[in-house]
C-alpha cells in the first residue's frame, strides 16, 4: 500500500524556487517533511544492515540468492507499475501487489537482503512511472519506496520468527508467510495513514475506513497469488504460465471494485453538498460552494467567478495542507460556465489533485455541481434584487424621491411622535416655506433645472437644520422645518402661562430666508430665489402636527398675499372661525334639501378589455350661491362636527347604494366605492351605520367598497382596528386609496387586510419619464400580487400610460382615458357601453380573483 499526496506545480506557475521545491517538498507541511526524512533514513539504515546479514538460503529454495534478489526486485517493480489508486480527501492512495511480491521474494531471497531489494524495486518502479507521467517528485518517490522497504523488513522479521527453518511447502511456512504479509500490510498502511493525516488530506477515521475497504479484498488476493506462485516455483514452474490470465482478471476486478467505490463516494458527497447549499446571500452561497467543491472533488483549489449587474466578482479557496504560494496550482483545471435558462451566472474552475487528464466522470460531476451552484446563485441574486426593490419602495414611501427629504406623511407621523415625547408646555414651532415664482424657473430653464433648484434648496435647509429638527418637502416647491426646541425670550409670557416661542421662531425664519437667497448656479446661470415663510408655534401638548401644518399654511398664504417674507399664524386667519361657521350652517340646509349633495361617478375598468370592474363615488356640493364645490372646500367643516358628519356619511352611502342599484338592475355586477374619512373609522357605530344603509337598499355587502385614506394610518387608536375588523366581518370590502404617497400606506396594509390598492395618480403621471415612479408602480403591483389583493391605477389619461401599466401586469385602472366622472343619470348608459364593447372577462372586486 502507498500514498500520493500532491502533484508538482503546473507549467508557468510563478513559485519560489528553492531546495525544497527541487526536492519535491514544496507545499508540504513540516510534519510531512519530518516524516519523510525519518522514514527514508530508517529504510536506508535497515537496508544497509540487512545486506550485512548472511546471504545463505535453505536447500529446498527454488533459486539461488542472486537470482532470487533479481526476481524480488523485478516483482516489486512490477507490483508498483500495476498499482491502483483511489482518492482519499484531497490525496491519492495507491494499492499494489506488494504482499504477493513479498511472499515470493521471502522464499527466493535471503531475508536480510529483502528490504534492499524492495527499496530498489520500488524506486525503479516509481522512477518509470514518474518518467511516463513527466512528473519527478523525488521526495514522494523516496517516501513511498522507504515505506515499502520498512514494510518488507518488518514482514521478513515476522515470517522468519514464525517459519524458522521449516520446509517451503509446509503449513508452518505458509502461516509465517501470511503473518509476514499481514505485517507488511499493517506497516505500509500505518505509514500511509500517518502521512495523509499530517498532510490534512482527509480525517484519520475516513482514511482508515476507506483504505481498509479498498485494500482488504486485494490483500486476500495477493496472499493467495503469492502462495500459489511459491507452490508453482517449487513443484512445477510451468504452472506459472497460467498465472497471467488469472492476474489480469484479478487486476480488472480490483480496478472495478475501487472505481465503483470512488463513484459511490463522490456522488454521495455531491448529493449532500448540493442539498445543503444555503438560501442566503451571494457570499454565503459562494462560501458553501467553495467548501463543497473542495470536499466532493478532492480539489487543491476552487475558483468561482460570479457575473452580475454590477460587474464580475472572483472568489477562491485552497484545500488544506497545500501551500500554493510555494507549490503552485497542482493538477489539471476544469472550467465550466454556470448558467440558468441560458443566462450566464459565472464560471466554476476546479483544480484536481490528480496530475493526469481528467476523466469524463470528473467533468460530468463538475458540470452538474456547477448547474446546482448556478441555481443557488441565481436565487441569491433574485432575493437581493427583491430586497433592494422593497427597500426602494419603503424609502420612496417615507422620503421625497427628488430631494431625499422626508415627505409630508412621514413628517406628520414622525413629528407627532416627537411632540408626544415632550413636556406638554414645551414650545415648538413649524416653518412652512414656498419658493416665490417657481413656475418662472421651470418655464425659463426647464423642469430638469427646476429640479436642481429644489435639490439645492433642500441641501441648504438641511445645512440649517439642527439636531432633532425635521426637514421635509411637503409640496411641489413647498418645504417644512419642524423646530421641536424653541428657546423663549426671558420674561415671555405671563406667570403660570405657556411660554411663547414665536420671537425665536421668527428669527429662525428670517435666517432661512437670508440663507436661501444666496446666489446659486444652475446650468451655467447664476440666479437667486426668494421664499415666503409661514410660522406656526404652540405648546407640544396642545396641538398635533397636522394642525400646525394647517396653521403654518394659512400664515404662508397671508405672507404671499401681503408680499412679505415671513408671516405668523393669527387666529383671525383661521377660516373655521368665520366662513367655516357659515359653511357649517349651509351644510345643514344642504342635507335637508334633496338636490344639493350629489355624486359624480367614475368607472374603474379592466386595463386590457376596458370592461367595468367598479365605480367610484365622488361627492360634490351644488351650493346655491357659490356653485359646485369640491370635497376639499367643505369636508374639513364636516369633519369638525360629529352630528353633521354622521348625517353627511349616511347621505353619501344612500346616494352611492341607490346608484349601484340602478346599474345592478341593468345587469351590470360591479361594486361602488365610497371614500371614508378618519373620523368615521374612529366611530364605533360606523359599522352599524353601514349595515343599516345596506339593509335599506337591500344590497349585499359585496356591493360596497370603502376607500380608506392615508390619515387612517397616522392614527394609533385601537378603535380604528376594531372598526375595520367589524366591517370586514360584515362582508364589506376595503380599498387603500392614494397608495404610495406616504409612510402610512404600508402601515395600513399591515394593520388591516385590504381587498384593493389604488396607486396614487402622481406615480402614474410620472412613470413614463421617471424610473423611480415606475419602480414604485411596479412594486405596488408586485405587493398586491403577493398579498392577493386587487390593484387599481388612478389618473390614467394617455395610451402610453395604459400600455405601460399593462406591461407591469396591473389589472385595473380609472381615469379620463377611459371615462370622466359623470352624474348618476348617465352612469348606467356608460357602464353598459363599456361592458358591451369589451370581451367577457370582467374581473369583479374579489380578493380571491386578484392578480
Morphology: elongated
Mean pLDDT: 79
CATH level-two architecture of the largest domain: Alpha-Beta Barrel
Number of strands: 24
Poorly predicted tracts of residues: 1-20, 322-328, 489-498, 841-851
> What is the percent of helical residues?
40-55%
Look at the structure and give the CATH class of the largest domain.
Alpha Beta
Strand percent estimate: 15-25%
Number of helices: 29
The N- to C-terminal Cα distance equals: 67 Å
Strand order of the largest sheet: 15-16-18-19-20-21-22-23
- Which class do the helix and strand fractions yield? alpha/beta
Find the CATH topology of the largest domain. Answer: TIM Barrel
CATH superfamily of the largest domain: EAL domain
The structural domain count equals 4
Please give the radius of gyration in angstroms: 45 Å
Q: Major sheet, described briefly?
A: 8 strands, mixed, barrel
What keyword list fits this structure?
single chain, 851 residues, alpha/beta, Beta-Lactamase, Alpha-Beta Plaits, 4 domains, 5-stranded mixed beta sheet, 24 strands, disordered N terminus, disordered C terminus
Description:
The two termini are 67 Å apart. By secondary structure, this protein is an alpha/beta fold. The model is unreliable at 1-20, 322-328, 489-498 and 841-851 (pLDDT under 50). The protein has an 8-stranded mixed barrel with strand order 15-16-18-19-20-21-22-23, surrounded by 5 helices. It folds into 4 domains: 25-264, no CATH class; 280-320 and 330-395, GAF domain (Beta-Lactamase); 408-486 and 500-575, Alpha-Beta Plaits, CATH 3.30.70; 579-836, EAL domain (TIM Barrel), CATH 3.20.20. It is built from 29 helices and 24 strands. The longest helix has 39 residues, at 360-398.
Amino acid at each position: 500500500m502507498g500514498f500520493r499526496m500532491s502533484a508538482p506545480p503546473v507549467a508557468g506557475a510563478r513559485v519560489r524556487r528553492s531546495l525544497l521545491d527541487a526536492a519535491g517538498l514544496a507545499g508540504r507541511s513540516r510534519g510531512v517533511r519530518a516524516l519523510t526524512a525519518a522514514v527514508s533514513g530508517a529504510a536506508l539504515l535497515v537496508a544497509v544492515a540487512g545486506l550485512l546479514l548472511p546471504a545463505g538460503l535453505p536447500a529446498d529454495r527454488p533459486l539461488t540468492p542472486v537470482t532470487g534478489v533479481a526476481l524480488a526486485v523485478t516483482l516489486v517493480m512490477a507490483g508498483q507499475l500495476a498499482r491502483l489508486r483511489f482518492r482519499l480527501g484531497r490525496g491519492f492512495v495507491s494499492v499494489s501487489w506488494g504482499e504477493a511480491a513479498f511472499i515470493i521474494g521471502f522464499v527466493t531471497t535471503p531475508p536480510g537482503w529483502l528490504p534492499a531489494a524492495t527499496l530498489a524495486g520500488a524506486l525503479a518502479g516509481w522512477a518509470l512511472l514518474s518518467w511516463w507521467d513527466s512528473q519527478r517528485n523525488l521526495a514522494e518517490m523516496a517516501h513511498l519506496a522507504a515505506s515499502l522497504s520498512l514494510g518488507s523488513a518488518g514482514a521478513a522479521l515476522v515470517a522468519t520468527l514464525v517459519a524458522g527453518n521449516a520446509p517451503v511447502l509446509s503449513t508452518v511456512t505458509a502461516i509465517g508467510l501470511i503473518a509476514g504479509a499481514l505485517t507488511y500490510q499493517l506497516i505500509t498502511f500505518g505509514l500511509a495513514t500517518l502521512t495523509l493525516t499530517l498532510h490534512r488530506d482527509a480525517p484519520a477515521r475516513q482514511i482508515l475506513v476507506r483504505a481498509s475497504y479498498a485494500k482488504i479484498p486485494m490483500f486476500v488476493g495477493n496472499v493467495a497469488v503469492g502462495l500459489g506462485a511459491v507452490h508453482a516455483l517449487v513443484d512445477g514452474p510451468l504452472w506459472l504460465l497460467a498465472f497471467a490470465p488469472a492476474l489480469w482478471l484479478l487486476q480488472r476486478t480490483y480496478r472495478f471494485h475501487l472505481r465503483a467505490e470512488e463513484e459511490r463516494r463522490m456522488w454521495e458527497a455531491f448529493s449532500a453538498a448540493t442539498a445543503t447549499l444555503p438560501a442566503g446571500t451571494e457570499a454565503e452561497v459562494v462560501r458553501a460552494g467553495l467548501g463543497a467543491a473542495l470536499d466532493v472533488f478532492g480539489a487543491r483549489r476552487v475558483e468561482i467567478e460570479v457575473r452580475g449587474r454590477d460587474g464580475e466578482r472572483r472568489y477562491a479557496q485552497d484545500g488544506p495542507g497545500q501551500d500554493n504560494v510555494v507549490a503552485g496550482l497542482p493538477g489539471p483545471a476544469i472550467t465550466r460556465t454556470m448558467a440558468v435558462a441560458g443566462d450566464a451566472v459565472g464560471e466554476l474552475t476546479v483544480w484536481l489533485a490528480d496530475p493526469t487528464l481528467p476523466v469524463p466522470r470528473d467533468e460530468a460531476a463538475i458540470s452538474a455541481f456547477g448547474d446546482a451552484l448556478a441555481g443557488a446563485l441565481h436565487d441569491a441574486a433574485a432575493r437581493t434584487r427583491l430586497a433592494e426593490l422593497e427597500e426602494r419602495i419603503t424609502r420612496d414611501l417615507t422620503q421625497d424621491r427628488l430631494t431625499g427629504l422626508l415627505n409630508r406623511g412621514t413628517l406628520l407621523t414622525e413629528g407627532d411622535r416627537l411632540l408626544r415625547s415632550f413636556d406638554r408646555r414645551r414650545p415648538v414651532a413649524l416653518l412652512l416655506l414656498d419658493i416665490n415664482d417657481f413656475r418662472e424657473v421651470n418655464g425659463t430653464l426647464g423642469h430638469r433645472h427646476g429640479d436642481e433648484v429644489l435639490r439645492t434648496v433642500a441641501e441648504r435647509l438641511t445645512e440649517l437644520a439642527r439636531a432633532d429638527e425635521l426637514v421635509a418637502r411637503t409640496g411641489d416647491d413647498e418645504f417644512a422645518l419642524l423646530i421641536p426646541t424653541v428657546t423663549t425670550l426671558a420674561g415671555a409670557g405671563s406667570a403660570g402661562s405657556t411660554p411663547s416661542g414665536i420671537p425665536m421662531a421668527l428669527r429662525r425664519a428670517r435666517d432661512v430666508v437670508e440663507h436661501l437667497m444666496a446666489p446659486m448656479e444652475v446650468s451655467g446661470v447664476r440666479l437667486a430665489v426668494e421664499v415666503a415663510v409661514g410660522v406656526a408655534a404652540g405648546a407640544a401638548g396642545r396641538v398635533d402636527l397636522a394642525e400646525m401644518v394647517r396653521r403654518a399654511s394659512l400664515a404662508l398664504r397671508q405672507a404671499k398675499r401681503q408680499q412679505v417674507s415671513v408671516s405668523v399664524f393669527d387666529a383671525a386667519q383661521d377660516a373655521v372661525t368665520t366662513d367655516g361657521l357659515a359653511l357649517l350652517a349651509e351644510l345643514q340646509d344642504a342635507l335637508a334639501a334633496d338636490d344639493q349633495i350629489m355624486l359624480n361617478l367614475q368607472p374603474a375598468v379592466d386595463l386590457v378589455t376596458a370592461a367595468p370592474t367598479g365605480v367610484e363615488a365622488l361627492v360634490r356640493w351644488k351650493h346655491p350661491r357659490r356653485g359646485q364645490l369640491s370635497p376639499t372646500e367643505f369636508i374639513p367643516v364636516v369633519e369638525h362636527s360629529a352630528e353633521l358628519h354622521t348625517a353627511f356619511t349616511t347621505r353619501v352611502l344612500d346616494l352611492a347604494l341607490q346608484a349601484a342599484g340602478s346599474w345592478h338592475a341593468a345587469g351590470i355586477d360591479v361594486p361602488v366605492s365610497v371614500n371614508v374619512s378618519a373620523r368615521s373609522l374612529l366611530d364605533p357605530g360606523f359599522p352599524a351605520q353601514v349595515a343599516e344603509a345596506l339593509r335599506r337598499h337591500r344590497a349585499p355587502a359585496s356591493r360596497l367598497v370603502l376607500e380608506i385614506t392615508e390619515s387612517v394610518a397616522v392614527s394609533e387608536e385601537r378603535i380604528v382596528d376594531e372598526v375595520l375588523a367589524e366591517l370586514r366581518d360584515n362582508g364589506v370590502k376595503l380599498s387603500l386609496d392614494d397608495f404610495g404617497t406616504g409612510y402610512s400606506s404600508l402601515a395600513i396594509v399591515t394593520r388591516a387586510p385590504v381587498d384593493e390598492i389604488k396607486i396614487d395618480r402622481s406615480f402614474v403621471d410620472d412613470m413614463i419619464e421617471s424610473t423611480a415612479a415606475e419602480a414604485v408602480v411596479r412594486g405596488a403591483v408586485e405587493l398586491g400580487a403577493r398579498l392577493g389583493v386587487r390593484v387599481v391605477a388612478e389618473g390614467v389619461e394617455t395610451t402610453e400610460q395604459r400600455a405601460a401599466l399593462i406591461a407591469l401586469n396591473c389589472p385595473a385602472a380609472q381615469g379620463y382615458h377611459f371615462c370622466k366622472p359623470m352624474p348618476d343619470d348617465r352612469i348606467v348608459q356608460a357602464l353598459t357601453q363599456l361592458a358591451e364593447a369589451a370581451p367577457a372577462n370582467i374581473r369583479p372586486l374579489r380578493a380571491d380573483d386578484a392578480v
